[in-house]
UniProtKB/TrEMBL annotation:
Pathway: Glycan metabolism; pectin biosynthesis. This is Hexosyltransferase. It is found in: Endomembrane system. Residues 1-22 form the signal peptide. One of its GO terms (cellular component) is Golgi apparatus. One of its GO terms (molecular function) is glycosyltransferase activity. Its EC number is 2.4.1.-. It is a single-pass type II membrane protein. Its main location: membrane.
Length: 368
């Protein structure tokens, strides 16, 4: 449990030139946006192997662009900003990343305010904000085991094919509680075969049956949906989506159909995940687990902490009830929450301390 090993590992993730391949410059104004409470991020520029930054910001339909979609809302904004920061920090060509942000019109912070905040934190970021109308999905949402899972914004990923410009043929969808510690272009470049629509890490050791109720499994017509497919659990917080095939196959309607069945028969308990499993389970292009080290938020037991799965890490995901910014603020962090903190751009109050490396345990796995 040597401190030198811990410090070295921490610095490898946060500051290593091997992982941060872009070029960073720092803002001249002290980096603080007083009105919004976030520090301005460093200005991340392309490496020498990328297109010249002098060519201007990429257009939405530029074929060389990496497209990333995320949601924005007042509750998870701090996490979303940290996620964007992590993507840019580790990208070899950060200027060629285009973000598609989805917000609701009735959030306490309006889409206009959220746009201003993002622009103030990332002045040179290429992005577009879309307004997701909650009435699109509100009548399809059923109650869940956790009220947070009933948020209409959780279902925005179902509508990316409708909202994003038709010229965008592929997008990486990321939840707001992730940090990326690898070059996201590696995830972007994975191959999705002709008969598949999405790529995601699969977890076939998980008990798949628990994601649906007994009434689902006892109904021969319902359980027949999986047929020959060897369905495995996958987490919808990190997906590569082929939007061209998504639109052609009308997969949004297929998901909505299962949401309608749920309203009538109560076939699952977990919000927006089970409809994806019903439509895509057993037909997902498996991606290396390094791209979704999920479950770091723990389960529903207060104060529970999780360790990483064995193996290399490219993306850390605090799925679950606990969020790192909440636990850090409460001074009750889990050890891995300190790996999220370097990407946090919230301006600290004077006198407030940060976590120290002494809290980190030995971490017997590699990053790359």
């Amino acid at each position: 449990m040597g401190l030198s090993r811990i410090v070295g590992f921490f610095l490898l993730i946060a500051y290593s030139p091997l992982t941060c391949l872009g070029i960073r410059t720092f803002p001249n104004n002290g980096g603080f946006n007083a009105h919004f409470g976030f520090s301005e991020a460093p200005d991340y520029r392309n490496g020498v192997e990328c297109r010249s930054s002098g060519e201007g910001s990429p257009e939405t339909c530029d074929p060389s662009v990496v497209h990333v979609a995320m949601t924005l809302d007042s509750e998870y904004l701090r996490g979303s900003i940290a996620a964007v920061h992590s993507v840019l920090r580790h990208a070899s060509c950060p200027e060629q990343i285009f973000f598609h942000f989805i917000a609701t019109e009735f959030d306490p912070w309006s889409p206009r305010v959220l746009t201003r905040i993002v622009r103030s934190v990332f002045p040179s970021l290429s992005f577009k904000l879309y307004i997701f109308r909650e009435d699109t999905v509100i009548n399809l949402i059923s109650s869940s085991i956790r009220p947070a899972l009933e948020n209409p914004l959780n279902y925005a990923r179902n509508y990316l094919g409708d909202m994003i410009d038709p010229c965008v043929k592929r997008v990486i969808y990321l939840d707001s509680d992730v940090v990326v510690v690898d070059d996201i272009s590696k995830l972007w470049e994975i191959n999705i075969p002709e008969r598949k629509v999405i790529g995601a890490p699969e977890y076939c050791h998980a008990n798949f049956t628990k994601y649906f109720t007994d009434s689902f499994w006892s109904d021969p017509d319902l359980r027949r949906v999986f047929g020959w497919r060897k369905a495995c659990y996958f987490n919808t917080g990190v997906m590569v989506m082929d939007l061209e095939k998504w639109r052609e196959g009308q997969f949004r309607k297929k998901i909505e159909k299962w949401m309608e069945v749920q309203r009538k028969k109560r076939i699952y308990e977990l919000g927006s995940l089970p409809p994806f499993l019903l439509v895509f389970g057993g037909n997902v292009e498996p991606i290396d687990h390094r791209w979704n080290q999920h479950g770091l938020g723990g389960d529903n037991v207060a104060g529970s902490c999780r360790a990483l799965h064995p193996g290399p890490v490219s993306l850390l995901h605090w799925s679950g009830k606990g969020k790192p910014w909440v636990r850090l603020d409460d001074r009750k962090p889990c050890p891995l929450d300190y790996l999220w903190e370097p990407y946090d751009l919230l301006q600290r109050e004077r006198g407030r301390g940060r976590g120290t490396l002494q809290h980190l345990p030995p971490l017997p796995y590699s990053i790359f």
